[in-house]
Specification:
The protein contains 5 helices and 8 strands. It is an alpha+beta fold and 237 residues long. The strands form 2 sheets. Strands 6-5-8-3-4-7 form a 6-stranded antiparallel β-sheet, with no helix packed on it. Strands 1-2 form a two-stranded antiparallel ribbon. The radius of gyration is 24 Å and the shape is extended.
């Protein structure tokens, strides 16, 4: 609940205001009560999330493919009994605060707070760990736009590698080759965060921007993807 936090902030502001002579203390008193009334009915969520990576070596692959039956279906009994090895990549924390709005139930406020907080902690993991760096599809080149937005933690100025699919004849696999770097336009970022109605349904986004604009690159083409450039975070666990 926000109320204890809001009350603490109000009391601190009132204390500071009480140390000032009148009329200099009036803004502190008015601001303290306004801040308290604005925040007190909302919710705050704090989340700690651990990111694990599946170990997909030759032995695990062999064990997995051995689970298939003659009719090319997975033997779920064997699948559920198998312990897939994982390695811990990293741990991050996030918090989100949603204030109450007229006509919205407490259940809706809690649900929206939790959903937004999960998006926020995933975005932090994506920024901090290269193996989880977000990849988004190019959907237009004039202007250059990608299917991502504030839900992915974009604020503007982030760098993304522009990746082109290249077929490798030796391995018979598609590889992704970097052909340049593009940056997110600070003024044209899609707000794709969840917003819920009082019924709990996702509120439709009525904004005109439905994608995020990137800096131009002559090599860009539909079918390419962009992958965020991340600074590898040192493990603290």
């Amino acid at each position: 609940n926000n109320e204890p936090i809001a009350a603490f902030i109000r009391d601190v502001m009132m204390y500071i205001g009480g140390m000032l002579p009148s009329p200099a203390n009036i803004p502190f008193t008015v601001g303290a009560n306004a801040a308290y009334n604005e925040m007190k009915d909302g919710k705050t969520a704090k989340t700690t999330t651990a990111l694990y990576q599946l170990v997909w070596d030759e032995q695990v692959k062999a064990d997995f493919y051995a689970m298939f039956t003659a009719d090319n279906k997975i033997d779920m009994e064997k699948f559920n009994a198998y312990t897939f090895p994982m390695t811990l990549v990293g741990i991050d924390n996030a918090s989100s605060t949603i204030v109450a709005a007229k006509g919205r139930s407490e259940d809706v406020i809690i649900k929206e707070t939790l959903i937004r907080n999960m998006d926020k902690v995933f975005a932090k993991l994506q920024r901090n760990y290269e193996v989880f760096a977000p990849v988004s599809q190019i959907i237009s080149v004039n202007p250059l736009v990608a299917d991502m937005g504030t839900k992915e933690g974009l604020q503007g100025g982030e760098s993304f590698n522009l990746l082109e699919p290249v077929y490798n004849k030796e391995t018979n696999e598609v590889e992704w080759k970097s052909v340049g770097v593009v940056k997110v336009d600070k003024k044209q970022i899609w707000n794709n965060e969840y917003s819920l109605t009082d019924s709990g349904a996702v509120d439709e986004d009525t904004s005109e921007i439905k994608s995020t604009v990137l800096s131009n690159n002559k090599k860009a083409a539909v079918g390419m993807v962009v992958r965020q450039v991340v600074k590898v975070k040192k493990k603290k666990y």
